[in-house]
TrEMBL record:
The protein's name: Glycosyltransferase subfamily 4-like N-terminal domain-containing protein
All copies of domain Glycosyltransferase subfamily 4-like N-terminal, residue ranges: 30-212
Organism this protein belongs to: Nibricoccus aquaticus
Top-level taxon: Bacteria
Single annotated GO MF: glycosyltransferase activity
One Pfam family this sequence matches: Glyco_trans_4_4
Amino acid sequence: MTADARPLRRVLIVSPSFPPMNAPDLQRVRMSLPYYRENGWEPIVLTIDPACQDGSREDALRATIPADIRIHRCGAFSLAWSRRLGLGNLGLRAWFHLLFAGARLIRREKIDVVFLSNTQFVTFTLGRIWLRWLGVPYVIDLQDPWRTDYYERPGSRRPPGGWKYQLARAQAWLLEGWSFRRVGAFMSVSQVYLDDLRQRYRWFRFVPAEVIRFGASETDLAAARALPPIPSLNAQPTALNSAAAPAVIRFIYTGAAGPIMPHALKVLFRALSLFRAARPDDARRLRFEFLGTSYAPPGRGVESVVPVAREFGVADLVHELPHRLGHLECLQIQTSADVLLLLGSSDLAYSPSKLYPYYLAARPMLSVVFRDSYLESMLRELACSTVVTFSENAPADDAHSQLIAFFDHALNGFARFTHPVRNDAFFRREFLAQSLTARQCALFAAAVPPAPADLA
């Protein structure tokens, strides 16, 4: 029962990936689970059996899930079999399994609302089908755009995946509007995504919708700090490890990189090259570590940052670990950084979820982002980082000068350096998991038709 003695309403959360799997799109649900009940909702999770998935695992994430959360796991078509048809997508392989498992749960548990929170976009069609079959409203969480013209814009890189990309694009054009048409409420990590939908669909302006970002969990940070240290990721380079050598300044970036942010990397490494040309001995003390830069398992990742560094002659100052790291591992690494590095994407709506745990880590932060991007505005509002901006088709001389000045400040222990005054009150209100879960629950309530008692 909630504080006002009303029975808890029930939300069925569809999250195809779930711990022990480690995928970016499960993190919102995972961080929110401890707080649904205090906001009047009993969460029931529908996910896919880890044995049917081939993504990265992080067993330590199990400890962050409250022990009394009910989790139902369904199967999926064999990955080996479906790959013969060129269809390894998890949402497609498990679509029928989720459809019937979800219908059974909705009937048996008397579900009040369905919450589809993932990036397996084809699963969004289930919401409308269950609404038609069983009358249960649904809420969609758009973490990435389903239908996008990003790769068709001038100057964009070629889309990955060949015919698979074209199939996914056709699927988005055919199914997005149909899936969203009867949605009860909508949340997104970016206002830009909501604005695009309002322009595309006239009816969308009447749908309850709100920007609710991923945020960060103080519980996660405590769990990360309790992990044993990871020597291979925290060691300094052997060549600079002697007692007589000056301390190395570690700039650390965690998460996917490379192809999604080539412009920012080039601005950064060009500045590093100029700094090295002027002050080679000081440059040797700078170490740039890019860790977990792809979603590939260990041994199968391909470097995407080091080749860019090589173009500018600074690859020896850059270390890259091109496979996926665990969420808690990344948090632990972030707390050990001398400087946390954040890079912007050419997608001006890009909203990296790593910003919020970066903030909690409370380390000096350097951000290299596109001017007038959504990320720039967020960083300005949080006041947690030194922000260096650039434009794609304009000289970056000013950005290079600012970066060189920052390198100098870092080498001098940030003496005489004015740190930003962090906006902690704003962060706690807008980006902590507990606050964000309350806003999710308000959207659930907006999606549910009022009961006759409520209308009396």
